[in-house]
Amino acid sequence: MKRIPLFLLGLFLVSFNARAQNWPQFRGPSASGVVEGQAAAVTWDAQKSVNTRWKTAIPGLAHSSPVVWGNKIFVTTAITSAAKDETRYGLYGDVAPVKDDPKHIWKVFALDKQTGKILWERTAYEGLPKVKRHPKSTHADSTPATDGKHVIALFGSHGLYAYDLNGKLLWKQDLGVLDAGWFYDPDYQWEYGASPIIYKNMVIVQADIQKNSFIAAYNIKNGKRLWITPREEIPSWSTPTVYEGKSRAELVTNGTKAIRGYDPVTGKELWRLGPNSEVATPTPIFAHDLIYVTTGYRVIQPIYVIRPGAAGDISLKNGKESSDFIAWSKTRGGPYMPTPVIYGELLYIVSNQGVLTTYQAKTGERVYQERLGGKGGAFTASPVASDGKIYLSSEDGEVFVVKAGPKYELLATNPVGQVMMATPAISDGLVIVRGVSHLFAFGETPDARAKSTKTGN
Q: Are 156 and 212 in contact (CB under 8 A)?
């Protein structure tokens, strides 16, 4: 058998990765929650193994989402020997934290995308948790990020870590104790939840905590801090987003006291906007040269649609819904936990109770409002979209698939059989779903997909 020259093999691998649908951070490319290309599965049943390509057990407890680069999937977890699991799911308002005393092991896993086989696992940190957690939370809530060379894992108070794609530790940074919790009572610690993002040569971390909140950038090659900007903020759990416009880039952050835009290269604040909800969780997103920031706790539940290029305080005057830098806004309707998704001309927002509301993304005109499957449920994971379909994962163990467009059409209700808190990833026809104990890949078999293509279905 002839051997393939190494340089040709390298070219093949580069070409494969360039064609692959990468899902490199929380909510995928640019936090959009959208990929296009090879059609993803519409129906499946994990319990009956229908369109279930593989199922892999992941030890520990984590709500961090999977990310994908090429043929590798990366996930994080926190493993404990606690005899009793005090985690609770569903719709409730309790705020008392869980104190996990037993030793934890924080790990990063890499899996083969096609088979689900664990390729490597690395221990980042071992010890007692430095803060308590919300009963609905975990000690590994931050989704990793990758640029195809580095895998960045953030474990809150237990450090920021960089690995290469083969699992070699490149560097680590101690960010101090990141204590995010109930701002009315510091003893009610809920754990850190924002995810790191990669922008050019930087890893950017937003840390809105009880004291000394900040946003900072670290050199992706060696972990050295490039800049840090203090934030006059109470705890939030939102991941920042970088919008690259025609004239400049804007690092957009969601926060209780203000929504802010920064220069991502220097950390200098560019603009700010308020008022906002007390608990800021959804991630800023962008489309149509507009920036969308939403929140859904109290006192208001705003939807802000911001034009780039702003400076200073761009808060609306009383009674106004738009301005030079606010294309449109609403004081009600913002989601509490799930980040919205913009697909085509429409903005899709799902509430914690499973009510899906759709707006015209450019104007704010409401298109429809429906309870998913006629029953709703509990929703924490964010919706994602691909090839004309919106995927919405419930804590009750089902993924609803809705046809994209101005009319509500439920295509499928797919049982997974596990609580789902993490946002799915979509890559090369696979819907990659994280349950509380397993990672799943759902997709049609190659034969079924070829048959479907031939028949035009």
A: no
| Six-digit token string for 24 | 């490199």
pLDDT tens digits, 133-184 = 999 999 999 999 999 999 999 999 999 999 999 999 999 999 999 999 998 8
- Give the three-class secondary structure for 311: coil
In the structure, what pLDDT confidence band is assigned to residue 447 with cuts at 50, 70 and 90? Answer: low
Q: Is the pLDDT confidence value at 345 over 80?
A: yes
Mapping DSSP to helix (H, G, I), strand (E, B) and coil, where does residue 336 land? coil
Ordered DSSP codes for 133-193: B-TT--S--SPPEE-SSEEEEE-GGG-EEEEETTS-EEEEE-------B-TT-TT-B----
- State how far the Cα of 269 lies from the Cα of 264, in Å rounded to an integer: 9
CA-to-CA distance for 157 and 127, rounded, in angstroms? 11
What is the end-to-end Cα distance of the chain in Å, rounded?
Answer: 40
Cα dihedral 352, 253, 401, 370 sign: positive
- Domain residue ranges of the chain, discontinuous segments joined by +: 26-455
Task: Report how far residue 418's alpha carbon sits from residue 407's, in angstroms, rounded to the nearest whole number.
Answer: 29
Degrees to nearest 5, angle at CA 316 with 311 and 319? 165
The model's pTM: 0.93
Is 26-455 a domain of CATH 3.40.50.150? Answer: no
- The residue type of 264 is P
